[in-house]
Structures are given as structure tokens and as C-alpha cells.
Write a structure and sequence with these properties.
Blueprint lengths: L11 H9 L7 H11 L4 E4 L6 H12 L9 E4 L3 H14 L7 E4 L5 H10 L3 E4 L1 H10 L9 E4 L2 H6 L3 H8 L7 E6 L4 H10 L4 E4 L10 E7 L5 H12 L4 E5 L2 H13 L4 E4 L5 H13 L4 E5 L13 E4 L6 H8 L9 E7 L4 H11 L4 E2 L5 H22 L6 H8 L4 H12 L29 E5 L9 H11 L7 E6 L4 E5 L1 H10 L1 E3 L5 E6 L22 E2 L45
Parallel strand pairs: 1-6, 1-7, 2-4, 2-5, 3-4, 5-6, 8-13, 8-14, 9-11, 9-12, 10-11, 12-13
Antiparallel strand pairs: 15-17, 15-19, 16-17, 16-20, 18-19
Helix pairs in contact: 2-3, 3-4, 6-8, 10-15, 12-18
């Protein structure tokens, strides 16, 4: 039987803190680590993200700090800004009953705010190695009073090249200090670091069988590379994840997959090393807020992310090692929640899969690619479940009188069928099984249905604009829901975007919007789309239309939007359409015109 928090030698303030946060019983890493750290021992602990390790070191630090002394008494190092912020918030929550003062210190934030905090005096500094080292060299951070140092996600810090920074920082703390080292894996480099700086550390190792969260269903899909997009979209349609991370091997693959998914109607955002920190933070906020459901990322870019409600993790490319696999899937199934981890495996990669299974001592369950019949059945099941919930909760009671009136002249079964028909889009909706490559049906309320506003952006293919750039700017910079973005038509030097009318008004009021490349685009109103067969002014000069993508509704493949030229005439040869060479591959996510 696991111990209680009261049995871990926590004082009254610590017990009040865990009770206020709703913690009932300590996790294994907390149960083993807290008594050792309270006793002043050095600790070398193997612990995954999501196992409760932050509380494992935060509670002892809060209890041992002398709050009457406004000096830095504990230092926590984290590999990324996001993790430093997350750990800082958690420590503030856990130390609130004692008045613990915690300051996050990280790059990408101005020095002024950090300097004010350091001058005011804090008990704990949580920071990234680079910024902590900068403050030490500037003379603005004094570590002479530090008695506890925590290295969180130590293996990731070493992977990111922070070993020299860590050694520099550890050389500035007193010789009489406590060091706690937490790492998802314990490779030789971590052992070497522990031997050099720790004193007879107590080793805490989670069993390899428990290295991956038991609440996470681990599955794999065997598919050829050319079929991966089709397999992924079918699984997305079947599972309907509200919050998922998709890992790709390269930045180029992240951008390509993001553009393809956006073009098929999924709310997706791309994160990799080429985007700015400000853009990264805004995209992550959109992901946390639910405005973006799919986060496509490289493994390096996703390090340090702490998003508790991720329901699915997809390994679009099989990880190169068991440690990488553990790191990736550790972002779902957090803190007792259920999660799914799905890995795509080509027939030639079966040996890699078996190696990972041997290392984690767990077999992955094979998952078949869903059929269109599976997807249709799942949607029907979900709709039926929502109907039952509405009936049992009484939420639909306001409509009973209307149904009663209709039932006097019509069969109640037909009344219900007509209501479901209208709920699924009515005359313009989809009432048959979706085609394999079409992606999800248009969502109700999206910009692809009903009235839309059309916006003109003064940048296009010549400036390197892609659909993913537009979606990222709208969702992160303007906080627009992906469901309110429709067709995106990119031309040589401008772009036309369909949005919901209220969103159009909002964006026109902004006038400009920064793209992740750093370029600001001007937003003006575009002419409404002309109906088919209407006489249109000449086409713009320059390259013809490139990619087309949509969020919250598939790209429109009807009439091509046009922009007037100064002369109103068509440039020579503009009526001709260049056909691709025979056998040439069509860009991913771009289909034939309907």
C-alpha cells in the first residue's frame, strides 16, 4: 500500500499545499524522493515527464527554505523556456502556504523584469542554463547562498549541448550543497556528471516496465511511406483527438505535413527550430486553448513542452531509439489520464520496432488502418452518444413542445430523422460515407459554409508564403479559431483568404499581421467571389495559383478568384493553363480541380 503525504515527513504547510491542489496520494517518484531530499541526501532519479517529479523536489525545497531570508537558496535548471515557466508556476503553487518567492529566468524575455525580481530578493530561481550563466557573469545572480540545486530533464539538457553551461554553474555554488538530478534516461553521460558533482547519491530508478505510462495505449500501424498521409487522416477521422502531437523527423516534413493536413480541413500548427520564440509561444497558447487541435513538431522543438491534456501522440516517423520513443509518448497519459500513442512503421522498419519493444519490455499492439465504414460507424456512434446525453440531461427539453406539435401531423420517427438531417448540414451537408482521401467533412459554422468575407494579403508565393504561414498567423497572432478560416488561395504576390464575416471585421481592424518569417502583411478587403459564369476582370500577372488550404472546411475547388489589373485586360497567355509533365508528382495536399 503506498504511503500518504503525511507519512513522508512533510510539515503542516506542505500538507496544506498538496491538499489545496487536490493531491491525494504521492506518486512512486514522490514517495521515494521526498524523504531523501528532506534528509539532505543527493539524489539521482530516473523519472519521466508526467510522473509528478516537480512536486518531488518542490515540496522539500519549500520546506527547507528559510523564507525570512530573501536570498537565493535553491536553483532549478531546466532545458527549455516552457519547462522553466511550468516548473516555476508549480513551485509557486506548492510553496504558497509558506510565502515562497520563485523567479523564472530564461532567454527570450527581457532582462529588466528578471533584474527587478533578483533585486527584490527571491528564494528560488528556476531557469535555463544559458540565461542563468548570463546573470552570473553580469554579477546579477549570486549563488553563494544556494544549498540545493536541481537538474530537471538532465538528459535533454546534455542532448541540447548545455554540459559546459551546467559545469560552469555548478562551479559557482558552494561545496556544501545538495544536488538532485532528474532524468528520463540515465546514459553514461549522466552517470559521469553524477560521479563528478554528487556525493554518494541515492539512486532511484523506475522499473523499465514502468518507463512508459501504463495509462497509455501503445499501438503501431504498418504502412508504406507513400500511404502514411492517408493512414494518418483516417485515424484522425476515427479517433477525433481534441489535442494531439504529431512527431516528424525533419523541419521540412513538419511543414509539408502541416500544409497537407490544413488543406484537408484539420486545425494544425507546425513547430520547429526556424520559428521565432514569440511565434512558438503563441502557437502553443493556441494549442492549449483548443484553437489548434494538432501540433506537428520535430523532436527537438517539442522538448520541454508540458501540456497535460494531450490525448494522442503520433510518431509519424519511427523514433531512432527507445529513449526517444519514451520521451515522445511521455507527453500523453499524464498524471493518471488515459492516452494513445500510435507509431507508423514501414515494412522495412520492423526491426527498429522490435528493438524498441525489447528496450521498453512491452509489445505494441498492431492497429489496422480504419476503413471508411469504420469511420462512418464511429461518427454514428458518437452522434448517438451525444443524443443520449442530451436526452438524459434534459438539455433538449425546451424543444419538446415543438416536437409534440410536429408529431400531430407527422410520424415522430420522421421528425427525428429530419432533425438529424438538418443537424448534419441539411441540403448542403454530407450524408454519405466520406471518400478515402477527402479528409473530414466541413464542420458546421466553418468559413466554408454560408456567408464568408474575403481578405487580401499583400504577400504571396514570390515572398515564400505558404498556407501554414497564414493559418499560424491567424490562429496565434490574431487568436482566430481554425474553424473560422476557409479557402486560402496563394498567387504570385498576394493571397486571398476566406474567413467568417466577424473574423474579417476583426482582421481588417488590425490592418497588419506578422507572419512567422518576420514579415508583416497588409490586410485589406477583397472583392467577393464571383458566381460561376460571371464575367471577371483580368488575372494578375506573375506566377499562377499555388497551394490552397483550409482550416475548418476543405479548400474550395470552384471558381478561381481574380484580382483586377489596372488595364482590366487579360495578360497575354493568361488563359492558357500549363499542364504538368507526364508522370510528374502533384504537390502533397493539392488535388485536381473539380
Amino acid at each position: 500500500m503506498p504511503p500518504t503525504f503525511a507519512e513522508l515527513e512533510l510539515d503542516a504547510d506542505g500538507l496544506r499545499a498538496v491538499e489545496a491542489l487536490g493531491f491525494e496520494t504521492p506518486t512512486p517518484i514522490q514517495a521515494q524522493t521526498i524523504p531523501l531530499l528532506l534528509a539532505g541526501r543527493d539524489v539521482l532519479a530516473q523519472a519521466q515527464t508526467g510522473t509528478g517529479k516537480t512536486a518531488a523536489f518542490a515540496l522539500p525545497i519549500a520546506q527547507r527554505v528559510e523564507t525570512a531570508r530573501r536570498k537565493v537558496q535553491a536553483l532549478v535548471l531546466a532545458p527549455t523556456r516552457e519547462l522553466a515557466i511550468q516548473v516555476s508556476r508549480a513551485m509557486q503553487d506548492l510553496g504558497r502556504t509558506r510565502g515562497l518567492a520563485v523567479l523564472p529566468v530564461y532567454g527570450g524575455q527581457g532582462y529588466d523584469q528578471q533584474l527587478r525580481g533578483l533585486r527584490a530578493g527571491v528564494h528560488v530561481v528556476v531557469g535555463t542554463p544559458g540565461r542563468v550563466m548570463d546573470h552570473i557573469r553580469r554579477g546579477t545572480l549570486d549563488l553563494s547562498t544556494v544549498n540545493t540545486v536541481v537538474l530537471d530533464e538532465a538528459d535533454e539538457m546534455l542532448d541540447m549541448g548545455f554540459v559546459e553551461d551546467i559545469e560552469f554553474i555548478l562551479g559557482k555554488v558552494p561545496e556544501e550543497r545538495q544536488i538532485a538530478l532528474f532524468s528520463a534516461t540515465i546514459p553514461k553521460r549522466i552517470d559521469a556528471l553524477a560521479q563528478r558533482y554528487q556525493r554518494k547519491p541515492a539512486r532511484i530508478s523506475i522499473a523499465r516496465e514502468a518507463a512508459t505510462a501504463p495509462q497509455t495505449r501503445q499501438m503501431y500501424v504498418e504502412t508504406h511511406h507513400r500511404e502514411k498521409v492517408r493512414a494518418l487522416t483516417r485515424i484522425l477521422d476515427l479517433e477525433s483527438p481534441s489535442s494531439a502531437i504529431i512527431f516528424c523527423r525533419t523541419k521540412r516534413e513538419v511543414d509539408e505535413l502541416s500544409g497537407t493536413l490544413q488543406g484537408r480541413g484539420y486545425t494544425a500548427a507546425a513547430i520547429h527550430g526556424d520559428i521565432t520564440q514569440v511565434q512558438r509561444e503563441r502557437l502553443l497558447l493556441a494549442f492549449r486553448d483548443g484553437r489548434v487541435a494538432l501540433l506537428i513538431a520535430t523532436e527537438v522543438a517539442a522538448r520541454g513542452l508540458d501540456i497535460p491534456d494531450v490525448t494522442h501522440v503520433f510518431n509519424y516517423d519511427i523514433p531512432g531509439s527507445a529513449d526517444a520513443y519514451i520521451h515522445r509518448i511521455g507527453r500523453t497519459g499524464r498524471m493518471g489520464r488515459k492516452g494513445d500513442a500510435i507509431t507508423f512503421v514501414a515494412p522495412s522498419e520492423t526491426r527498429k520496432l522490435r528493438f524498441i519493444e525489447r528496450q521498453i519490455r512491452q509489445s505494441l499492439m498492431k492497429m489496422p488502418v480504419p476503413t471508411t465504414a469504420d469511420i462512418a460507424a464511429r461518427r454514428e456512434e458518437m452522434f448517438r452518444s451525444s443524443l443520449v446525453t442530451a436526452i438524459e440531461s434534459g438539455a433538449a427539453s425546451r424543444y419538446t413542445s415543438l416536437v409534440g406539435t410536429l408529431a400531430k401531423d407527422h410520424d415522430p420517427l420522421q421528425v427525428a430523422a429530419a432533425a438529424i438531417y438538418l443537424a448534419n448540414g441539411g441540403p448542403g451537408g454530407r450524408h454519405e460515407e466520406p471518400a478515402a482521401e477527402e479528409g473530414p467533412p466541413p464542420r458546421r459554422g466553418s468559413a466554408s459554409e454560408g456567408e464568408v468575407a474575403r481578405l487580401h494579403l499583400d504577400a504571396g508565393r514570390a515572398q515564400g508564403v505558404s498556407p501554414s504561414d497564414i493559418v499560424a498567423a491567424f490562429t496565434s497572432e490574431a487568436e482566430v479559431s481554425g474553424r473560422e478560416i476557409g479557402a486560402i488561395d496563394i498567387y504570385g504576390d498576394f493571397t486571398l483568404v476566406e474567413v467568417a464575416p466577424v473574423v474579417g471585421t476583426l482582421l481588417l481592424a488590425r490592418a497588419t499581421l506578422p507572419l512567422r518569417s518576420g514579415r508583416d502583411v497588409q490586410i485589406t478587403a477583397a472583392e467577393p467571389k464571383r458566381p460561376p459564369g460571371a464575367t471577371a476582370p483580368g488575372r494578375p500577372s506573375g506566377p499562377r495559383k499555388g497551394h490552397k488550404g483550409a482550416i475548418g472546411g476543405r479548400a474550395s475547388h470552384g471558381h478561381k478568384p481574380r484580382r483586377p489589373t489596372t488595364s482590366g485586360s487579360r495578360p497575354p497567355g493568361a488563359h492558357k493553363r500549363r499542364k504538368p509533365a507526364r508522370g510528374a508528382a502533384r504537390p502533397a495536399g493539392v488535388g485536381k480541380r473539380g
